[in-house]
Protein 1
Amino acid sequence: MSASTLLDRIWDAHIVAGATPVVDGAEAGELPDLLYVDMHLIHESTSAQAFAALGREGAPPAPRRAELVLATADHTVATGIPLIAGASVPAASGGTTAQAALLERNAAAHGIAFRGRGSGRQGIVHVMAPESGLVLPGMTLACGDSHTSTLGAFGAFATGIGTTAVGQVLATQTMWMVRPKVLAAEFSGTPPPGVEAKDMVLALIGRIGGAGAQGHAIEFRGPAVRRLPMDARMTLCNMAPEAGARAGMVAPDDVTFAYLQGLEFAPTGALWDEALRYWQSLRSDPDAPFARRVGIDVAQLAPMVTWGTTPAMSAPIDGHVPLAAASAAPEETADALAYMGLQGGERIADLAVDVVFIGSCANARLSDLRSAAAIARKGKVAAGVRAIVVPGSERVAAAAEREGLRRVFEAAGFAWGAPGCSMCVAMNGDQVAAGERCAATSNRNFRGRQGPGARTHLVSPATAAATALVGRFADARTMA
Amino acid sequence: MTVRNPIAGTAVLLEAPNIDTDQIMPKQFCLRTDRVGYEDAVFHEWRKDRGSILNDPRARASPLLVAGPNFGCGSSREHAVWGLLDFGFRAVVAPRFGDIFRANAGAAGLVTATVEDDAFAALVALLRENPGTRLALDVVAQQLAIGASAPALRVRIPAFHRHLYLGGHTETGLALHHDAGIREHERRRPAWMPTTLDGAPAGAPRST
């Protein structure tokens, strides 16, 4: 048998139909397979039109396997944080509550489990699903959201799909997908204190570029990944799409199994033993055919801060904003700097911020909040800075409150919001005003992402907390 | 449905690289729950600039969009594809596309064609010089004809998407043909795979 990657093992176990139809002029590897989807996650902003497609154009009137679908509301739900100056609920929307209510009705009509606010289990879909044990090694998962890649941290194949595909998964529990190539990202060494998973993955994206992993899944490997807890592995996989990847993955190991054992939906007894035996086989062979390998020594890394309008535009905290003329893409760099209100050449540590956002599916799990709180407890939010913490799920919020983390944040001057996507996708009214600079633990710094004219700098939770206290981008290595 | 091939007419040129789906379809329009009527939403912020090529009357009549590398990167929102279709585009030509955008486009009937970098540079130069040049994208032959005389450019359109577009198929329809295979797969699924019906009462997240 030829050597396989982790992706191959999962893929081959889920092919319902091989590459069909046969099309004239198709190249090898160009045609998709029809893959079975073991768990389908849905949220309010990409599912309404998919439900509407049921019963039309030959589609069945009801989902094929309602018990393999999990719904929550995250993109549009209010955090309860007072609107910030200059921001407003997005216009032309028909309101922000209609979608979540519609999803709840659709779920009820079709017998789909819906985790709404107050259920104790609501949250950002990529945060609430794994903490319930519905994401297990060897599974395939799909969701109408690019950051579904997060769930590959469990040794699953998890990918974002569009709304037409959401409709197909509802109707058939399958999706058409071309098998991605695999890029092996090998992380070695021990990171300095204050350097986190976010910094590791921003460094990778900066190295290979925003389209560097297009057509690929990224398998995060190496001793520096093996040492990471699940929360941090999810941060790595969450950011894989920012390098253009279709998925991120980490082979499951004892860290994974220890996390899963005893969770709500994890198998028990003999089924656990059977599953565990299979999960232990889920890894890439030593001579697996990776399309590409990239190596990063994390001992050499510093906390990273993005300065531009793609996640690939980043610099170490002790570095500088680049000069457009000296960059590899002068025109694109100049455009990005103009949008960001930068000249080029500034010290990153000299840039003052107006807003700090700790949240999102990249960095709103319990370990993220612990990391930020460890720094927040050492001071107060700087004058003129508005800092907010939005936990990733109701379970994370409850645990953080039990541990006293909410008290720590509030005593330091951070506002604490109810769980959801909040200021990452900025669909619920939590926005950064035009021209304001925001240090955000989220995953995208595109133009207008946090609101029209908003200037987003992506950072780790530790860097965000340190920055909130100092009022300028601050080095978590000296404060951790 | 009648299949339109070749897709012929003028083109809008947006040559910047990395045009993400947040630019194509700003978030506020993703709060809608219908599938039509996104023509005013597409590139909403960009069109606030009166000088934008998208405000040129010819733009709405152009079936082709020629865009810079990595077009459609970022968010999976299919609303970006719907907006381009509602605006009037039938195909996008670019050196590279975001993977999910491209898959969404294929599923929704927007043709995506890739060109080699040097051919793209030539195409950009030509459209800068003569913005009204007529192009014709042949989905079957995978060729982009330029004007009347220049040699056609070789483009690549994913085979599956050509099959969908030319045959008038939907992905769901094709998947439904495999009902027997789906049942067979379901018989083989391991018993440890979870359903949302299992499970104990809500507990705390595992601290890691």
Protein 2
Amino acid sequence: MIGFIKKDLAMIKSNFKLMGILLVVYVAMGLLGEMDISFILPFMSVMIMISTFSYDHYNNWDAYSITLPNGRKNSVKAKYIATIFMILFVAFITLLMAFLISYARTKTINYEQILVTMLGTIFGTLLVLTFMYPIIYKFGVEKARIGIFLIVFGVVILGGFLSRYVDLSVIGKALSFLENYWFILLIIISVMMVYGSYKISAKIFSKKEF
Amino acid sequence: MENVLEVKNLSKKYDNFALKNISFSLPEGMIMGFIGENGAGKTTTIKAILDIIKSYSGEIKIFGLDNRTCDKKIKEDIGVVLDDMFFPEILTPHDINSAMQGIYKNWDSKLFYNYLIEFSLLSNKPIKTFSKGMRKKLEIITALAHHPKLLLLDEPTSGLDPVARAEVLEIFQSVLEKENCSILLSSHITADLEHIADYITFINDGEILLAKTTNELLEKYGIVKCTEKEFQTIEKKDYLKYRKLKYAYEVLVEDKNAFKAKYDIAIVDKITLDDLMVIMIKGEEE
């Protein structure tokens, strides 16, 4: 499986320059006290990984991957692992930069706020991965883009509806007992949703014909 | 001699095409040429062997093992070249080597880089900068660099110029000698197969029309070229198919020497695989 991961990471190396530029922009904006764009880099890493699906599809890699040992299973697993690795690696770099920016500007580091922002970002990117990957494996990248647009659109509409007609503070109060466990809860939910997403994608790919 | 590949009663139905009870076997250390016109079912058969397509009926055994239940074990020892290009074109041969090291237990980097030098392919250039022929060479090199026991090659020489084709065919032959590898090779370029294939399996419209040794086909079969009057004298049991051309008849016979002994018709030529394909597909039986 290492080979499949190496192949996916090799495919995104041409994007490292773009990521470097984004990192510089992020640091510059942070030092100038402009808006916090730390969420962009991890999100970009997922988007870049999604672009590898296009290359795979365009070059018929998927059919070829099945001819390799354990190809049906490992190519899907590798895609998830490579993506998670990318998200965590980029998030870690961004986190370090955030600490440096915070220290450079105020001579103190607001660990809690930075960590909360970054964890929220990681959770958000994992959420994108969770929904996008099974849709991509089922329908391909092009249709998946429309799918994700519909999902986001639906979530926004639903959110708007709920905030207008439902008293969300009731839910907040009901879940207040979890306040001290949110960190663990976030990790458990993340692991569960990514694992579930992987199982669905693996099942879809195991039945695919090319 | 054991069979490395056995296909029994392979059937697969699509809306507008079907593989119908395909059966053939490839003995160890042999090259089988798999011929047929476009859309005859060559690629579909190879895809079924590789489990790229599913929901087919029949039995496929590779190295004596079921291709669906022993997938990993089998694929460690198979080298594959598919009809379409299959490496993401932003990768370099160096990336391919790095990835394959983590995929095949027997991956031989030294052999891979030797082949790259032999075929004049640069290891650090993205595949997108390669010509079609260079891409095909890279695919072939990758199929060979883990010392496979069986090569499944779907149109491996298409897009190559005659010199590159000759190089590739030489490599296939040398691999066969050194590694005791068996090869199933589908190709439109039947002249290549006449030189290297031990067996020819001919598929048309999803059915196997013919499966013989190449020697038997090229030495025993013949094409009779005759007038209509001469054709009328030939008994139905003495030919397989015939074609009516503008001024003459072409008749496919199974045993040209026996035919010559029986009939007084001057032109009985040796057959080429191209002739065979054309007359088997376009010809009539009676």
Protein 3
Amino acid sequence: MEYEIVIGLEVHSELSTKSKIFCSCTTEFGGEVNTHTCPICTGMPGVLPVLNKKVVEYAVKAGLASNCKIAEYSKQDRKNYFYPDLPKAYQISQYDLPLCYEGYIDIEVDDVQKRIGITRIHIEEDAGKLMHDEWETGSLVDYNRGGVPLIEIVSEPDLRSAQEVKAYLENLKAILEYINVSDCKMQEGSLRADVNLSVRPKGQKEFGTRTEMKNLNSFKAIIRAIEGESARQIEVIKSGGVIVQETRRWDDNKGVSYAMRSKEEAHDYRYFPDPDLMPIVVDEKWKEEIKNSLPELPEARKKRYISEFSLPHYDASILTSSKVLADFFEEAVAKSKNAKAVSNWIMGDLLRILKEKEMEIEEIPFPADYLAKLIELIEKGIISGTIAKKVFVQMFDERKDPGVIVKEKGLEVISDESAISGIILKVLENNPKSIEDYKNGKEKAFGFLVGQVMRETKGKADPKIINKLLKTELDK
Amino acid sequence: MKVTKETIEHVANLARLNLSEKEKERLTTDMENIISYVDKLNQLDTKGVKSTEHVIPIKNVFREDEVKPSFSRDKILSNAPEVEDGCFKVPKIVE
């Protein structure tokens, strides 16, 4: 029997406000433990949390950018549970009246468009960090992260494969980066996903029983967890077993999931309105203001690249998938005016080198300006395309202006005909066999000879001139 | 409303309370009394009445996104029962 995988995601994204959600402590990542704390974010009795206005703005921005409706009246609730990363023994979140609801994001997998529903987006506070060493008797808690604002973006169970999940997350991440509400650094935990997954025989209408895997913080881990957990569920069903609704922990190193909390302890959060926090009312005027502040979103940018720069659909999707990359592209295009060339360099050499060095797009070491300059050097005939590739590598490794690299290394194209002639004669002298082959009609021999001349000049000779002179010489 | 011993045990567990059998019995009666007392509210016809999430008619209480100095760590940790390496130390948590 064939099985279908059904997935819904809860994505937590840390908002990039300067201060925490309910107090004025900094949200900066990586400070000394417990130095970004105060009585409010450590849950001391008698303190009064006051909501950061930017948090509401950012959440509404995220809602509008993902086609959500914005609640006119929204409130904050206490979600009660005991865990030491939560100093108050409750998390301030939103229960039945979230800020944003009923939105969607469009994705594309294998050229098929699909709309993924967004159930809701709500605001809440992040928890602290627990550290435990196996040999220790206790656990240590650092509350620097406690009270950092989060939005939780809950999708409908509309996703059907790991590929769809990847496309959804990539689009979502791009949107959040574009509207500048989160830096989405997965390695710093500013974007994490809980995966709700069930399987059902293909064609069956009812959903199967789902399990939840929490806090996956890399795309790779999410994909592997989906593959591992769906395989496990299908295996259980095939062998006549039943799926238990539970939270499971995905061990990415071992590639297996473990049951975390048993059913008997199923969560009973006893939500109730937080009496310290007043309702949030987003009226039309405020909503319009936020709407007008939205930048061009990835979808719109992609369409513009296709129409304005005549880029292929695929190239436009890759370039706009990251705001940093799209900005880099546009900056280079503004200088060089040759969008096609800029796109080719980015899609080819740049992304390949980044991948080889396992670097992120944010880590591109040279300014967009340099790429424009490099393209100009080729266009003006100062360097050949082959040399340009070498200059590019050096530009990447040494962050040097390509013009300077070309000057220092004397890489300018040799277009002096007499100099090239001399080299051609030398090459011909050393390769009598190729001359014979050429005369016998072997076209390949010509290419070989051009290659030899190029080699002699370390790729600097103008290929057009080599072709012309070599032909004259051979046809003599 | 009838309150069972199981309900009491469940609620006690959620609140991390360790109750003796005697306490459970007493609390079952107490809880039942409290709930029947509040239950009276259910006799009111609330059709068309908007739910009251907050009793005070105030909305949009915000602060601006400004960073102010945090507390000194020593001060924050001064009430902690146990401290280690600048952290609150708590009983070991195993999932």
